[in-house]
Task: structure prediction
Amino acid sequence: MDATFLGINVVNFWTDLFLVVCMFVFMFLMGAVMSWSERKQSAQMQDRIGANRAGIPLPGGRKLTFWGFVNNIADATKNIVKENFKPKAYDFLMYNLAIFMAFIPVVVSIAVIPFAGEVKLAEFFNVWYLKWIPWLPEYFAENLPNYTFPVQVANLNVGLLFIFAMGGMGIFGAIVAGWSSNNKFSMIGGLRAAAQMISYEIAMGVSLLGLIFIYQEVDIWEIVVWQDTHAWGIFVQPVAFILFMTAAAAENKRAPFDLPEAESEIISGYFTEYSAFKALMFMFAEFIEIALVAVLLTTLFFGGYSVPWLYADGFQFPWGGSWELAHATVVILQLVSFIGKVLFFCWLLQMIRWSLPRFRYDQVMNLGWKGLLPLSLVNLIVTIIIVSLL
Result:
């Protein structure tokens, strides 16, 4: 079936819409989970209980807290309904626009990330644990027998460059928020954020050039396919992995790189003058950035959705054995693999956040310009020499 309406392929439209909704929901859920684990994980490391006060009342005086997750719902509700304080003198347009500059690029970046391989609808629903869904298996088998689509919103041939472009726009959100608030602390935080993000953006980009020389691609889909057929990026570029993770943590503006919003020095930095729902959006964007960094580490260095020895028809082991699997099972295993790797790196980034003390501002700048950048250049030169010789 190839139905079109006003020149738009209806099947492709609904497929793309479904993928967009799923991936945006995934990022928002990851932001909610990160805001919850930020409290509970730090509590476990510091021998505390963590957030557990808010809960749903139950008979007998008990309450359902969902391990403290209800606290996040209560805090979000509080921020939505509380009074929105604004500075007496501020730039109205840029003050409000800064929120979108900080939030939207983070969410949009996920569009080029493949969460799994290609899905063939007629085969996907033709498995025993999905046949209970009424009419769908028969409908796809009759009308869309050969329809396949990648689990990726936008398959851009410059996907890696797109991610860098979106990441660079976050600088504008921080500096515009600091300037438009008409507050000295906010302005200092905005300047710190701009200097820090520009400094580490360079080291992060140079560290990935070695990967590009090896992959010979900037298409994210092809990068994942290369790792699936050759080797994960961590094995061919281990130094780049360490450099990229460090620079990405600094880009995220979280401890030990949280100088742009150092509470003990400049209150809350560039969003000091934001309150209620607007402050919530800034903080939520920061939590989503954790998930985005974890997604990039997974995709570029740990094979993305790939599972060792898993192919389109099942497992093919190097010692000669095989295990045939249904198409739906393969896709689900790829999704589970991708999400599991992302959750691991989210946990690792939060462990780092609660383990290391905050650097001084001069130490942050020295690490970026005198540490990471020279190391990334050396790694790039060595990679070029090795690739040229091979």
